[in-house]
Model the fold of this input.
Amino acid sequence: MNHLIAAMRTFLKVVDMHGFTRAAEQLQLSPARVTRHVSELEAHLGVRLFQRSTRRIVLTEVGARYADGCRALLADLERIETCAMHESGRVCGDLHVVVLGSLMSPELAALFADFRARYADVALRITLTEAEVDLLAGGFDVGMVADRMITSVSWVSRALAHAPLVAVASPAYLMGAPAPLRPADLARHRLITHTAHGKVLHLTDGDGIDHSVPHEASFAVDSALMQRHIALAGAGIAVAPEFVVANDVRFGTLIRVLDEYRIGNDDVTINIVYPAREFLPGKVRAFVDQAVSHFDRPVIRSEAQREFRQREVVLRDSEVLPV
Done:
């Protein structure tokens, strides 16, 4: 196709310059190459475009009509290319985003709202899922998913956040049960775990010492969001991804316990996934940039969390558990 378009442009230059030699000078090509382009075009069409003599060339009737058609076609092509290049920089149209369901939160909803307010010509189409996803087959422009969910190998995957598991409970629950000060204390608590965590929790202290805690969970569910809701209801201690409970911790509706221990059971990396880096539509590039900026912000702990941690330190020093 590119060769045919080049031949058309060469042909039109010969028409405009009334000769092969002058056309070759304008195009900075050899006369032989210009002649070859026109001859190949005639062979492709099966018609004569020029009547040639030793002194001049004259367009045939077919050649004149073909020249008019070439001008119209190339003008349309230029207009289409200009529009396409302009559109690549515009931020508009439908943006289809697939999101890990448990990632949804008021804060993430604010990201979508802020993006829509900034780019009024973009309509967001958001799908929530906890399952593996093929972005191409699903017709998605962008994914905000856990690394284990990605099946599209040809897309770019960029880590947004690493979400360790954290142990959290509601203030109401902690008022009625002794707060755990060490991993072994979890045996005295109702635990809300994910089905993927198995029946042993693995915690590491600040000295790098591992503590394995066998348990029989009171609640074992396959949704981190459900873990959060059960914990908010005061039913026990949830071991959940940090991003699921970050806002609750921030506002004091959930409080982290065993904060100085790292929980090693299948923590989660959240990725933003999008097509190849080159020629990204403006809407995709703008959303990726805003999402990356959004996830770069630090999580701020609430006053309630700080007060609880101060109380826990005092209790640890005195070795007295709250009743």
User: Anything to note?
Assistant: DSSP finds eleven helices and 13 strands in the chain. Residues 299-323 have pLDDT under 50 and may be disordered.
